[in-house]
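SAMPLE LOG
Freezer: B-3
Tube label: C17
Construct: single chain, 537 aa
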Amino acid sequence: PPRAMAPALAPCRSLPDIRAARPLLLATPSIRASKDRFASTCPAGRPWGREHGKHFEFQRTLYDCDKQTVQQLKRLHKAFPFQSYVEGSENRGVTIEQLLRVHRFAMGVCAEWGRAFDEVDFHDVSRWVLSPTTKSTNSAFYEHLAKRKQSPNWFISHWWGGKVATFARCIQKHMATRDLCVSTVFWICAYALRQNALRDDVGASPCRSAFYKAMEAARFKLLLVLDAETGDGGPATPSSRIWCCFECAVCLGNQNARMDIVTCNAGEVAVVTDGLTQQEQTCERYRAGVGLAAKTARERAFPLAIVEAGLQWDRWDVRKARATEAEDRGRILNSLAARDLDAEPEREHERYGATNLQLRSAFAQAFIRWALASGAPQEVIEELVRTIPRDTQRTWLRLNVAGCDLGDPQRLRLALGCLAPKLESLDLNLSRTGIGDSHLKMLADDFLPTTLTTLILNLDGCEGITSGGVTAFTDRLPPKLRRLDITVTRTGVADQHSISFRGTSVSEHLAKQTAMADGAQEVRRKHVPGSAYALWS
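STRUCTURE (predicted):
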């Protein structure tokens, strides 16, 4: 209260006088009583009075700063005033407008940091904006941008050495490519986590961390931002950062995961998407082949150097990957090895190698269609094909080579070399690849694993496929198969509906179909006159 503070502040005429009066001010009985009263009503671990509109901690911070720093802090708190606490870091995603609001502020003050805006990275933003703004309130920066929860639609994996200007261009390009609205929410760790209390936000176990919860909230839709620069660790630096490796491993371990990859090279942003975008699907629906051609043309600008860098054996290696905090690296390695998180991590473990193979396989899977459709060098295609099946623990695969010219049997053999021997579920998109009946026979005889139980095959637009070829293909399917879905629209098959069955083996299904056909034929003999039956049959 002003009356209680008057004796302490009466002799003060300058900032040093206020610092000198601080002990007397804190000892004022009414202020001490207010602190105790508010502390009893605040959640544990938070400075008292924060949710009651009090700014005591911020003012106390100002007493310990010089005049220039005081001005900087006041400017930060004016630009990004504390809004409200939002529990659950997975609920702190940001929109593009909130992201650009931070970038506009950084653009206006980066000269004071001794940086041009094109040189500002996330370390600079954290040091000069995020940490000072959130220190007095022990909050996440998101809690200075919004008052309510914002569940993410996409999880972004990137490294903090990336330039914020390039990062923003990548997000905007991805939004334009996917035709996302301005209210789309992205989860970015720098804004979602409480930087001054990371242990409380991240959690003890990486598998129960804020990162994993955010991926679940985003339904395992991952946007991987790769750098094209050749600076520290580049290009494709996230492939050598352990948090990025962990994020990708957790996300891509889910069968429903979707990963888009974006980069900015020499000012040009390129996006490789998982499947067709909404606009490309619409084009494909109204005019077959146009959507696939648009995807091929869009992705052709992606730099080959990034793909080659990601395929190197020193990338996607959790044993060699780096982290800003050594403790984080140890916890992630121990989590992968199923050991005590606080123990000294082992130098070698079988789970490290399995995770590395999983990451490299997923990276190669994301680029196999790009390589086949854009005319990548033969050695790059062969390395991608060799890398995918090296993940011997993989039991499912979603392989999309739609729109690639695979009419040459040797080229088809090269593409089908991606199939691992222990697959149980295969989603194979061969639409508009120019294959025929002989190619289908090759697929069934030489490449389909005997362990396969689920097969989803898209043959849309393959005009060389006939009813006889499909029948011969189904006769050669693995005996353990329990689910089959074949799309034969715009092919030479007479009945161009999807061919599907579930719940029985192939032999049982064919036997049932034969019995049904025999029964139908007997009914026709009994109820249809001979001359009419001859015409019918």
